Amino acid sequence: MSSLPAECLALVYDPCARALRLEPVALRPPRRGEVVVRVSLSSLCRSDLHTVSGRRSPAGPLVLGHEIVGTVAALGEGAPGD
Predict the structure, then answer these.
(1) Which ranges of 1-82 would DSSP assign to H, the alpha helix?
(2) Within 10 A of 3 (CB to CB), how many other CB atoms are there?
(3) What's the rounded Cα separation, in Å, for the pair 81 and 3?
(4) What is the pLDDT of residues 39-76, one digit of tens each?
(5) Direct distance between the N- and C-terminal alpha carbons of the chain, in angstroms, rounded to an integer
(6) What is the bridge-based pairing of β-strands 19-26 and 7-14?
(7) Among 74, 64, 2, residue whose Cα is nearest residue 34
(8) Which of 82, 68, 70 is nearest to 34 (CA)?
(9) For position 82, what pLDDT does the model report?
(10) Disulfide: which of 3, 34, 42, 48 matches 30 by Cβ 3.0-4.6 Å?
């Protein structure tokens, strides 16, 4: 596995401004039992669309899309495969 960069880019949704912004996000090494995934593809589901349309009011800003395809980039101690 390759080393992690200090930050990555994320498409962040701000529900107050109802706007999407591409922003740098700091990365940290995985904690015990965690896995860091380098995302190749992410889809939006109906709950994400409800958030954007204002029918859900999550705390934000937030990154939408929890259905992902990617590769394991780093494992925390005790994570599966460690």
Answers:
(1) 46-53
(2) 7
(3) 17
(4) 999 998 898 888 888 888 778 899 998 899 999 999 99
(5) 11
(6) antiparallel
(7) 74
(8) 82
(9) 66
(10) 34
